[in-house]
Specification:
- The structure is a single chain.
- Helices cover about 20% and strands about 30% of the residues.
- It is of the alpha+beta class and about 170 residues long.
- The strands form three sheets. The chain has an eight-stranded antiparallel beta sheet, covered by helices on one side.
- A hairpin with an 8-residue loop joins β3 and β4.
Length: about 170
């Protein structure tokens, strides 16, 4: 499997193995194992927390549901959980805007430019089936290069509150 297959699959389905917006954290860890706990997303609250499997970052709500998914692609190689993608889970990157658009088109995944995230030295597009966002850095004088792919949250408002923490 190639990294473009992984990205287009996510763009079409909103999933990477057991990972999707709203997935139960216990179901994710049952398949992928324990993740690296990066920490709370706020200094004042313990939840939501950010977890990582290599370059796959997941925000997990207090009720233990995945609320955001981000795949960092700005490095030379991307590491993803092998149980989710097969093989070693290590992929070379350096994907251009043209590479991504061509792969989405070939996969029959409709997309459109995302003007709200296109400014300065970055541009962005959105895959329509999943609302996956592809954000590209634009190096001076060069073609845009994929920096980040993310699946947006669904507006989840956590019903669980801690005794001293609002969420």
């Amino acid at each position: 499997m190639q990294i473009l297959d992984v990205l287009t699959g996510m763009a079409k389905t909103g999933r990477l193995g057991p990972v999707s917006i709203g997935a139960e954290w216990g179901d994710v860890t049952a398949v992928l194992g324990e993740a690296w706990d990066i920490g709370a997303t706020s200094r004042r609250r313990r939840w939501p927390r950010l977890f990582a499997y290599g370059d796959l970052e997941l925000s997990v709500c207090r009720c233990r549901k995945v609320s955001l998914i981000s795949l960092q692609t700005w490095r030379d190689t991307v590491e993803l959980p092998p149980a989710a993608v097969g093989g070693t889970g290590t992929f070379p990157v350096g994907l251009t805007y043209r590479d991504v658009v061509s792969a989405l088109d070939d996969a029959g995944c409709p997309w459109e430019p995302c003007p709200s995230l296109t400014f300065g030295d970055q541009c962005s597009l959105v895959a329509i089936p999943s609302a996956a966002n592809f954000t590209f850095a634009i190096p001076e004088g060069e073609e845009p290069v994929l920096n980040l792919m993310g699946l947006p949250g669904d507006g989840h408002v956590c019903p669980v509150r801690g005794p001293s923490e609002d969420h």
